[in-house]
């Protein structure tokens, strides 16, 4: 299917687009899907034939004669194809089921339009669209703590179906009950004993073993339907800067249609020393380059950072926004250990500024507002659009319709 020429034929002229395709088995029929997200509209193609037969346009309205409606009103128009009232009903059903809030262009070419088939089509899209966050970062940065907290928060406060997958083969003190646990496949402790390796070597081995046994992970993942997944990852830095197993595992997950977003956590304690902060920036940048996923950098334990803010050289914004590092260069050039390396300091600062990719979100896991702030950044990085089953107040729908407030901002005013 030549999607780009189709999109230009449909005159969807949009620079901000996100298009993906995948195939799924829907009630015994191979079905090809294309999902496109644009600023003002969404596109769904679902075909069980080689061709596209019918195109429908569904508009979503939240007011009638100027008065807000309790439920959104869906108006369906068939733009081309043979008249098919079942197709129109299917287009309406899918829009509603996926809680789509923008105009939807939907091509449906199905062998039958029974309720069962149409429901399975919506399910297949939902399964595909549910996002997955991979929580990465050095040991002790707070990944496991965050996974447990965010699990409770998503489930209890945002009403999202959510599960945590533990991929750290040496995870202690999990404050959540993992839906999948890599420690059932392999543990660092066993590898250290059986192969006589140290902890670092054993962890590398475990991730290579997981890569080789990707089918084990996949067989468990397919059993989790329709949930937002959070992957708790191991902390060893080289796994994200140059070793390839984790990158390959993420690549395989993306290939089968998972949307991943990397949430990279670094202890905000490193802000207290200019040399450590530079190494934090370099680590974050090289991880972004190596992993190559939508990426959100986080400075964790912000409560401690705030408590000790008088000990910082700059305001907290300086560390989160990473806008002008020349001030940091001055400190490095005066530092007892770093003053010898003026040229190297200047080159490192220039490298980070040239890429201009790294900035941070602060996180204090004890604050719901902080969890929400991070969630909002992750949703934006992910392009999370479908929120079926999440709270649907008229206000929320209206504000989404005009694009004025994100779900987080709504939650913010509703709960705080
Ligand atoms: N003060 C504070 N401590 C935190 C926070 N997040 C995690 N920690 C602590 O940091 C330590 C390491 O956390 P853990 O989640 O095991 O880190 P991981 O190795 O990255 O999984 C634990 O003692 C946590 O209690 C936070 O937001 N604030
Ligand atoms: Mg951990």
TrEMBL record:
<protein>
    <recommendedName>
        <fullName>GPN-loop GTPase 2</fullName>
    </recommendedName>
</protein>
<dbReference type="InterPro" id="IPR018788">
    <property type="entry name" value="Proteasome_assmbl_chp_3"/>
</dbReference>
<dbReference type="InterPro" id="IPR027417">
    <property type="entry name" value="P-loop_NTPase"/>
</dbReference>
<comment type="similarity">
    <text>Belongs to the GPN-loop GTPase family.</text>
</comment>
<comment type="function">
    <text>Small GTPase required for proper localization of RNA polymerase II and III (RNAPII and RNAPIII). May act at an RNAP assembly step prior to nuclear import.</text>
</comment>
<keyword id="KW-0547">Nucleotide-binding</keyword>
<keyword id="KW-0378">Hydrolase</keyword>
<dbReference type="GO" id="GO:0043248">
    <property type="term" value="P:proteasome assembly"/>
</dbReference>
<dbReference type="GO" id="GO:0005525">
    <property type="term" value="F:GTP binding"/>
</dbReference>
<keyword id="KW-0342">GTP-binding</keyword>
<dbReference type="InterPro" id="IPR030231">
    <property type="entry name" value="Gpn2"/>
</dbReference>
<dbReference type="InterPro" id="IPR004130">
    <property type="entry name" value="Gpn"/>
</dbReference>
<dbReference type="Pfam" id="PF03029">
    <property type="entry name" value="ATP_bind_1"/>
</dbReference>
<dbReference type="GO" id="GO:0005737">
    <property type="term" value="C:cytoplasm"/>
</dbReference>
<dbReference type="InterPro" id="IPR053720">
    <property type="entry name" value="Psm_Assembly_Chaperone"/>
</dbReference>
<comment type="subunit">
    <text>Heterodimers with GPN1 or GPN3. Binds to RNA polymerase II (RNAPII).</text>
</comment>
<dbReference type="GO" id="GO:0003924">
    <property type="term" value="F:GTPase activity"/>
</dbReference>
<dbReference type="Pfam" id="PF10178">
    <property type="entry name" value="PAC3"/>
</dbReference>
